[in-house]
Specification:
There is one protein chain. The protein has 414 residues and is of the alpha/beta class. It is 42% helix and 14% strand. The strands form four sheets. It has a five-stranded parallel β-sheet, sandwiched between helices. The model has no long low-confidence stretch (mean pLDDT 97). Bound molecules: 5'-O-(N-(L-cysteinyl)-sulfamoyl)adenosine and zinc ion (ZN). 5'-O-(N-(L-cysteinyl)-sulfamoyl)adenosine binds next to helix 1 and strand 10.
């Protein structure tokens, strides 16, 4: 599928702020620790995309911004970034919504993906190099399921194909949850622990035989459609190979989605690990509950944009929270972010200010430390405050601060 246009990313080295010898450290769910990402020249990242049955809400935006920071920090440190994202453009919730509204499921998916592209463009989120829909990925998904079949790591229940989690000795290493903890999450997040005929309640669906009124694609194991986890597993290894640097998503994807995806990939290829780090963003809530399409307690990025909100203020409102924390959205946070943006913009319009070098060092240090964006924002606040008070005579500083905010935080101050 088409990705979306890339925003300009200024080079801080070219702006007179050469990159220091730093490593980006990120919290890895698989070990429960903050660890250095140690990518080669090319850093490889897969981030789970939307299921396009409704518009992008602030929870989604928050998750994609977290990984946009990963992308920006790696680039600043001199890496090329190979970034892949999917869109789950055929799955139960999408088909169900289309059934409810009488819309064609393909049109629904296409419309919501178009809106997502617009939202990401406006928020200045760097686009993936490959943006791949589940439907277009069916040939690679089928190929992957064939590899699992060749390893005897599938079985059928009434014509539907399942993956036995017992096939992967590493099952459980992504989320590090006990079986007792896995069970309710599996049921809550699209699994079918109660289905009769399964070898293990936790076994994951690989291929669902075509149901009446639903789409299906031919395959050596019958006409049907792919399960959810095998979609991301197949797309990620097709484009990035095994042991890529970061697999990302919201914390609700750690189990079962990233756990199952890793097991599929590890069994199919005989290699491990699937990703070197599994990185998860916190959940954004509204009125006491996680924002979710199924609950309907949503604030849409597109609705805020339509009502005239500056996308850079949305960006600052989200970055004011650490990516791993769970938090609640309130309208006041947007007001505070707009005020902050105004202060920054006014400060960089001044002819001079305190030197930008120490600000660049501090922002880079905070971001390299598990993306501490809130602390990075405070560094720019301090500079803006001092510049506004008439401190400093460095005439290169305002343009450099602009470049720092743009390159590292994705916030343009024009
Ligand atoms: N298509 C699958 C991933 S392959 C999916 O989970 N789609 S989604 O549209 O439900 O979510 C897209 C991304 O937004 C996921 O990473 C999910 O973890 C994240 N997300 C969903 N709700 C929230 C929320 N309230 N706060 C933060 N992130 C969220
Ligand atoms: Zn996914």
């Amino acid at each position: 599928m088409r990705s979306w246009p890339a925003p300009e990313v200024p080079s801080l080295s070219a702006a007179g702020l050469p990159a220091p010898a730093l490593q980006l450290h990120l919290h890895d769910t698989g070990t429960g620790t903050v660890r250095p990402t140690a990518p080669g020249d090319t850093a490889r990242m897969y981030v789970c995309g939307i299921t396009p049955y409704d518009a992008t809400h602030l929870g989604h935006a928050n998750t994609y911004l977290a990984f946009d920071l990963v992308n920006r920090v790696w680039r600043d440190l001199g890496h090329t970034v190979h970034y892949v994202q999917n869109a789950t453009d055929v799955d139960d919730p999408l088909l169900e919504r289309a059934r409810q509204t009488g819309e064609d499921w393909r049109e629904l998916a296409e419309r919501e993906i178009a809106l997502f592209r617009e939202d990401m463009t406006e928020l200045r989120v760097l686009p993936p190099d490959q943006y791949i829909g589940a439907v277009e990925a069916i040939p690679m998904i089928v190929e992957m399921i064939e590899k699992l079949r060749a390893k005897d790591a599938t079985y059928t229940v009434d014509g539907d194909l399942y993956f036995p989690v017992a096939a992967d000795p590493g099952f459980g290493e992504v989320s590090r949850l006990s079986r007792e903890a896995m069970m309710p999450l599996f049921a809550e997040r699209g699994g079918d622990p109660g289905r009769e005929g399964k070898e293990d309640a936790l076994d994951a669906l690989l291929w669902l035989a075509q149901r009446p009124g639903e789409p299906g694609w031919e395959s050596p194991f019958g006409t049907g459609r792919p399960g959810w986890h095998v979609e991301c597993s197949a797309i990620s290894i097709e484009y990035l190979g095994m042991a890529f640097d970061v697999e990302g998503g919201g914390s609700d994807l750690a189990f079962p989605h990233h756990e199952m995806g890793a097991s599929h990939a590890q069994v199919a290829t005989g290699e491990r690990p699937h990703a070197r780090a599994y990185v998860h963003a916190g959940m954004v809530g509204l009125d006491g509950e996680k924002m979710s399409k199924s609950k309907g307690n949503l604030v849409f990025v597109s609705a805020l944009r339509r009502s005239g909100t500056d996308p850079m203020a949305i960006r600052l409102a989200l970055l004011a929270h650490h990516y791993r924390s769970d938090w609640e959205w309130t309208a006041e946070q947007l007001d505070a972010a707009a005020a902050r943006l105004g202060r920054w913009r006014a400060a960089v319009l001044r002819p001079a200010g305190p030197p930008a070098g120490p600000v660049a060092d501090a922002v880079r240090r905070h971001l390299a430390d598990d993306l501490d964006a809130p602390a990075a924002l405070v560094e720019i606040d301090r500079w803006a405050e001092r510049a506004a008070a008439g401190e400093g005579t460095d005439e290169a500083a305002p343009a450099r601060i602009r470049a720092i905010a743009d390159a590292l935080l994705g916030v343009t101050l024009h």
